[in-house]
Design a protein that fits this description.
alpha+beta; about 30% helix; globular; 7 helices; about 20% strand; 6-stranded mixed β-sheet
Length: about 250
């Protein structure tokens, strides 16, 4: 997997300024979880601002405005209900089951758009632009200058998506995502748990639900945290051979 192992976070006084700021922002973010409606944000994301400008009227317009040279096919943009992995709601009452499933479907759709753009010629503008992810988690650039999609826990026929989990972010998880993986503080995460070669892995993607110029997506604010992280088990990630589902409310019917 492309995600590098990061050093454990250990508080050593005096704390570096950047760490202090991250912890302060994260603590403020988490303290406000009960005061804001699910999906609310502290500032409009770039794609939301683009949509609010009245520039786009159709999905084709939206994709062009976001840097794509064509619109993805319907097989990418529409996720049949029976193609969505099982969804767990572990948002501790912050999000109802219907909303959790809606967010999980938006995450699945965003991942499909990224995969399509990574494999299709001429879509570098979409991958480099601000509509799919925040600047701090902008997609990596492969040798030759072509951007790649967000790191995936696995791919191909040998990979089975076990479940998607919508959860409220904990302070330790925010610290891991921001300090070790360079993302932005996020109030909520979607965890994608997969089985590949007999091993269970979970990748954590912090973000916010957004219905903008590209339609409903999970706007990525932080990613890179998975079972290679030294604190994966402590942070509640399902890892290892045949790891069981750890709690949560199933919302698929």
């Amino acid at each position: 997997m492309p995600n590098p192992l990061g050093a454990r976070i250990v508080a050593h006084p005096p704390m570096r300024l950047e760490q202090f700021l991250v912890v302060a922002v994260a603590a403020s973010l988490l303290a406000g979880c009960g005061e804001a409606a699910p999906g609310s944000t502290f500032a409009a994301r770039p794609a939301a601002r683009l949509a609010g400008g009245g520039v786009t009227t159709t999905l084709a317009d939206g994709f062009r405005a976001c840097g794509a040279t064509q619109t993805p096919p319907a097989s990418v943009l529409v996720t049949p209900q029976d193609n969505l992995p099982p969804v767990l709601n572990k948002a501790a009452g912050d999000v109802d089951d219907s909303t959790a499933r809606h967010w999980a479907a938006a995450f699945w759709r965003e991942q499909a758009i990224e995969s399509w753009a990574s494999a299709s010629p001429g879509q570098e503008g979409l991958l480099r632009g601000p509509c799919l992810s925040a600047a701090r988690v902008r997609l990596s650039v492969l040798p030759g200058g072509r951007p790649a999609g967000q790191p995936k826990p696995c791919g191909g026929e040998g990979c089975l998506a076990l479940r998607l989990t919508v959860a409220t972010t904990s302070l330790p998880m925010v610290q891991a995502l921001v300090l070790r993986h360079g993302g932005n503080p996020s109030r909520y995460v979607v965890k994608e748990t997969v089985m590949t070669a007999g091993q269970v892995d979970t990748v954590v993607v912090g973000g916010v639900y957004q219905d903008g110029p590209l339609g409903p997506i999970w706007f990525v604010e932080a990613s890179g945290l998975n079972c290679l992280d030294p604190d994966a088990v402590r942070l509640g990630l399902d890892c290892g051979p045949g790891a069981p589902v750890s709690g949560g409310t199933p919302v698929n019917h």
